[in-house]
């Protein structure tokens, strides 16, 4: 971030799951007079608290947080919706004379702000979806990798909802839409971003993932998922929400044992962390801290 730029400044704290992003964002916000804009694709949903690691009021330490609890988990919340709400929040924070601090690990959400991605306007193709949804995640991933290898590198290979949507877009457009330049008309061109990336050594990250999982179990993660289902969220939708919600839902349906549930959450959390790094390592603007 250049000291000579007249552009409005925005701080971005990103990186792997369990790396300590939220705590750093709060610490920095208290120091410089900032407000946090969450960039987490599951924390946008109401009721997804323990499983998503949503920051608590106590942990916020008086720092305002935005883009938490803004959507019903019954309906899919898109990156385009996130972009619109986040840009509006950033404008309001700057108007108050505060510094926006974007914090999270969802790369597409972060890129939607910092790179001004223009999302393809591809309407749902229900006939295609009906056919694709009959296939397993592995088969869908192979299909996506064949028609859009660039998107396949960064997608959750187990998330059927995202796989179906990615295939739908790729089949319609035939290619990944290019990122717009930081030119006039790109909303990102108004701002200057300081990107701080958090990365931990593999052994430490695996230890933290395990420790965090055990803490969430004690906090009542299984009860949270059971309550979400009782409040009319289908098992299918819970599994679509991924990671903890997928495997706790499978456990509650007696599809897997408790031991299998814990093992799968740890394994998939680690794989997710690796996918996050694959996404972020392409961005040369990130200044990495920890583990490097």
- The name of the CATH topology of the largest domain is Rossmann fold
Kindly state the mean pLDDT as a whole number?
90
Order of helices and strands: EHEHEHEHHHHHEHHHHHE
Number of helices: 13
How much beta, percentage-wise? 5-15%
Helical fraction equals 40-55%
End-to-end distance: 21 Å
What is the name of the CATH class of the largest domain? Alpha Beta
- Calculate Rg over CA atoms: 19 Å
Shape: globular
| CATH structural architecture of the largest domain | 3-Layer(aba) Sandwich
Trace the largest sheet across and list its strands.
Answer: 3-2-4-1-5-6
Q: Can you tell me the residue ranges where pLDDT is under 50 for at least 5 consecutive residues? A: 179-184
Described by strand count, sense and barrel closure, the largest sheet is: 6 strands, parallel
Going by CATH, what is the homologous superfamily of the largest domain? P-loop containing nucleotide triphosphate hydrolases
